Fold each of these.
Amino acid sequence: MNETKKNLWKYSLYTFFVSLAFSRAIFMLFLKDLGFTTAQMGLLESILFVATFVMEIPTGILGDRIGRKWSMACGIIFDLASSLIFLYLHSFSWMILAFILTGTSFAFFSGSDRALYFDSLKALGRESEYLKRKSRLNALSIATFGVAMIAGGWLRRFGWSAVYWASIFAALLNLVVVLSLQEERLGRGHELSNAERLVQKDSMREALNYFVKDRRSRLLVLFMVGIGLYGAFDTPFAIYNQLLLDFHGLSAAGIALVTGISTFLAAAFTWVAGSYLEKKDPHRVLIAIMIVSSVLLLFELTGIPWVAVAIFLVMGSFSEGVYLISDSISQEGIPSAIRASLLSAFSFFENFFVALVYFFWGILLERVNPSIGITSLGIFMVIALVIIWRHGRLKKLAD
């Protein structure tokens, strides 16, 4: 029990190190410096998310079978391999491999890290604290992202090698932290659910079928499809804004600074949101965020640089609120034994949508004004809004 309790502060260290993504705010500029076109950048991003999409469920099942910390360790190793390619091998073919490795590393992390943290709290009888604690961890992650992004813009002055070696050093430290985590395995100190018994019989397929056949679980799938469509807007919006701000004349350091400020605002929003959201209807909050975001997005059409910066800053905070709420809702309805698998399956939806959007919008942005291209992403948020509204109505009827 004491070792499990240590997971809580070790997970904070993991969150800190995994968030030291020094290239995050400017890696599109890295690809631009290598001479790749916007269409090629979009294709690489699509490949990344296709790799994540394909590997989501296998890595989630693997995490449930061999242990979540080992899945997380594999994610770090794949990320290290991709960083080395970014450092030394710059042909388009090598970039494809690097993005496949990066996407696979995302899949190893996805589901397993959140499942390990939730089950650590559950083993301590403190799972009711998940929303508040996860909001604080998200705030730490976002603030660290902000520092790393600004630092990445500064490190860029010494060359791209400085940016990626800093990321490699952080990843190696994180690997040490992850390998020290203690994981509760099935059958130790808690009564097994039907799904968990099926897993112990080596029947993952039956366990997943058990989950899908439950009415409330099917509603959760509908909800996660909506969140996946929101991700199809939010992820490309955040990344392609690098090119939009570059179009408006901002330097690499300036773009990194704006992105860093956005993450600090998002960290403050997330820190406050955890306690506030416990008292509110999560569906109403999600719908309100998406309606306001849809209206704000229309102002991108003005083509005014400071308006584009302001929208980017606000959207960053809103998106963290959406993911915080969706994470809490999804965690509540999943049996522990298949938690990593099902969380990965839900990410599967999002990555499928994001991969398609990256490819087609990469081509679109070569042919239209970036402001128009960015605004057109809002169609996915509108569809997500309708699905989440519908989920809320159906859930009330089911209750």
Amino acid sequence: MKRRKFPLIFIVEDDPFYAAAIQKELEKVKLNNIQIYDNGQDAIYNMYQIPEIVLLDYSLGDSDGITVLDQIKKLYPNIQVIFLSAQEKLEVAIKSLKHGAFDYIEKDSNGLSNMIHSVKKLYQLNCLIVENRKYQFFTKFSVPIFMAMFVLVVYLTMLITSAL
């Protein structure tokens, strides 16, 4: 799969004003490949597009964010989810992280800037993971080829020297 120049980001938020604020903050840092969903089921239906990051509200009208997170992780375990919530309870944050969320951001006065920081961290982590996979692929196939070539050179050298 070819890596996109700009990561696809899903915003799953039932408050249209907050969703627009999130989108505006992402666009400020040149993250423009964004799709907004106002409910969890529409977001799940469109997961085939394989977003790199899902910004997920904890309290959605049609379901709670944990249920949506569980469905995302069941279908696409490598998609990363950042929870955004007005819930200040520590139990809610712990529960979301235990279910596989990358981060939990409170919707407070620092919420949008914390969200941008978390998205940047996650994007950098994803880039490192991709580079690591490329390196592992390269070493998996290049070392055996190198060894075979080395053995061939040694064998040919022995044949040439014994012929002389």
Amino acid sequence: MPNNKAQNYYVYVLRLRQEVWDKEIKFREENKHYDRYPKKGEPKPCSYVGSTDSKGIEARLKEHLTGYKKPGIGKWHNRYVKEYFKHRQPKQYSKINPIISTSSDKVRKKEKELAVRLRKKGWAVWQK
């Protein structure tokens, strides 16, 4: 039965080390637009865009970094975050949080919209 009580959800952006682009074929395939070696300046960030429920961003980040496995489900973390995490990027998400909703559908939509926006800025983004 669906939960009809509104709760806080959060979208977040985590900066990944550039090695994720160098070492991960699936990451590169997902970001064919990305210019790893621009003629001028530094490359745009490689990032992970995700979302979480009321437990909050810090608790979710800890799950990623520790390789958390959810009982009865299994893997509940992203391996790119676990292996290549550099730092949080709150400037990219602080204005849209919290997202108050009765379901995760609204937050998933915001998560996808944010990933698209960052890709349009030239970023390499992992979001599933």
Amino acid sequence: MPAPAGGVRASLIEIGTIVKPHGVRGELKVRLHHRRSSILEEIDPALLVLRDRHGNTRRGVSRAGDALLRIDGVTDRDAAESLRGAVVLAPRSAVVLAHDEVLVADLVGCEVFADGVSVGRVATVIETGAGEVLVVRNEREERLIPFVDQWVARVEIARRRIDLDGGDVWEPQPLREDG
């Protein structure tokens, strides 16, 4: 992917969600937002933060295995169950990116241009087996654009801009009343 121009947003980024308790000792199963991510193995788990459905944050996180976390004070399945749906946050500074990588979270909100003309903003990013797909929306329609070198010429996170290569070749779909 083209190198980003830089820029920093929130100091904590959401990397996953607690999906369920694991076992009877309070371990928590995590679903990472980017399933190929190795962030849980790469950063000190003490840097991770959990934010529950009520906005409360908890620290004291440690690893309990692949995509498993343990939280200080959570010692049984019932306590772990109460954290289902909590989000897992990591300090942005702990995420090391190669020169040609961007955080998926930074793509949301970027304006997308084809031949210099805005086609909309990234509303969300879908992860598929083949890679990420940008969901680009404007007030009337949306487009699904593969986030691959063949179609994306430049990503400038600091300017919140993505330039497409090859023009606007994606068939727009009208927005539904509920979407």
